Amino acid sequence: MNTHRVLVLARAGAARERTEAALRQADAALAAVLDPATADEAQIRAVAPDAVLVVLDPVAEAALEGMDSSPEIKMDARWNEFDHEQMIVRHKPRYRSKTVMVADLARKGDPRHQFQLLFDAALERWTAGEDDGYAETFEQFTTRANAGMSELAEGCEGAENVLVFTSGGPVSAVAAELLGLDAAEHRDYRGRKR
Questions:
Q1: Cα–Cα nearest to 73, from 141, 5, 19
Q2: Fewer CB within 10 Å: N-end or C-end of the chain?
Q3: What is the pLDDT of residue 1?
Q4: Which residues, 6+ apart, have CB-to-CB distance to 30 below 8 Å?
């Protein structure tokens, strides 16, 4: 069996200990365990791992610390967020330069509000399927997220606890599917939450 050397970046505590135990159970070789607050790039490069596992999210840490045993850890790319940067650039190509985008938003006043307006417009364009130049269309994204959910639901039968750490986009896609919303209703529902 080909054992992968894994570098774990996590703060000291039960979450890190359980993550290490789960990796050992999966026959991964722990190349190193470093605290992200103190590790520098040279230390990380010196380890030369095959993979890096980062446990930084306080919610994930709290959930793992609250478990009675070391969980089985699986990573599934279908739960990854959509490429919001590409979505913005497809909407406003000049924003390929973040410097230009930041300057434009600052000129308009209240940059956070201006970014939210920009993001909403770019998201509307992407979800409406107005352009076929995206690396992943909205339909492909929602299909991907829902396939991850379907496989998870089928594979966790009999499990006492199943935790998924992801982002708002995949959660929204799965929720829309569970509510039976089509793409237009999904967009409308997303817009009503503000």
A1: 19
A2: N
A3: 47
A4: 5, 6, 8, 20, 23, 24
Please give the model's pTM, rounded to 2 decimal places.
Answer: 0.66
In angstroms, the CA 68 to CA 83 distance is 35
Domain boundaries, the chain: 5-73, 84-142+168-192
pLDDT of residue 189: 59
Tell me the one-letter amino acid at 185: E
Going across the sheet that includes 29-34, the strands are: 29-34, 5-10, 51-55
Lowest mean pLDDT: which of 67-71, 74-78, 99-103, 187-191? 187-191
Contacts of 7 (CB under 8 A, 6+ apart): 31, 32, 33, 34, 44, 47, 49, 51, 52, 53
Q: Are residues 55 and 9 in contact, defined by beta-carbon separation less than 8 angstroms?
A: yes
Q: What is the mean pLDDT of residues 14-36?
A: 80
- pLDDT value of residue 68: 67
Please state, in angstroms and rounded to a whole number, the distance separating the CA atoms of residues 24 and 8.
Answer: 12
The angle subtended at Cα 182 by Cα 179 and Cα 187, nearest 5°, is 95
Which burial class, exposed, middle or buried, applies to 113 when counting CB atoms under 10 A from its CB (0-12, 13-18, 19+)?
A: exposed
Tell me: the pLDDT tens digits for 140-152?
999 999 999 998 8
Q: Which one, of 54, 70, 62, lies nearest residue 22 by Cα?
A: 70
